[in-house]
Design goal:
This protein has 151 residues and is mostly helical. Helix content is 72%, strand content 0%. The N and C termini lie far apart (116 Å).
């Protein structure tokens, strides 16, 4: 008989089901039949708990992997949507810049036309002569440039 004490199978609590291997006898040869049966039941209970824990670990690992896949898919979708929004924002800003430049160009042409019209009003002093013809020719040249889109 072994001088190492053994634990009675009926007194094992649920929390202590997973037991270290050191609590079991190394050599069962010297054990009585009842002690051998008790040790066997303890080992079996411990093995069952370990198998359940292993199954739970596998299930939780699988669930975590599935949740991770869902999370990564959502993150990729959000990234794609953000990229699309950023491209739209860049496009809108480029359009706003083009419109701003067009407005500035229009304002510049409008100012040139107003200046030309003012010059024409100033030139209508009812005098006919070389200076008046030169001024009219200059005004028509400026008008022609404006009509072609120049300033």
């Amino acid at each position: 008989m072994s001088d190492k004490p053994y634990t009675d199978a009926e007194n094992v609590q649920v929390a202590a089901r997973i037991r270290p291997t050191g609590t079991f006898p190394v050599d069962p040869v010297g054990l009585e039949r009842k002690a051998l049966n008790d040790q066997f039941r303890l080992m079996r209970t411990s093995h069952e708990s370990l198998q359940r824990s292993r199954g739970q670990l596998k299930r939780r690992t699988r669930e975590l992997k599935e949740a991770q896949d869902v999370f990564l898919t959502r993150m990729r979708n959000y990234e794609y949507k953000l990229r699309v929004l950023a491209e739209e924002k860049i496009e809108a800003m480029e359009m706003a810049q083009e419109l701003h430049e067009e407005i500035l160009s229009y304002e510049c042409r409008q100012k040139a036309l107003n200046d030309l019209l003012q010059e024409m009003d100033n030139g209508a002093d009812d005098s006919i002569g070389f200076l008046s013809l030169y001024r009219l020719q200059s005004l028509f040249a400026k008008l022609k440039v404006l009509m072609k889109g120049g300033i």
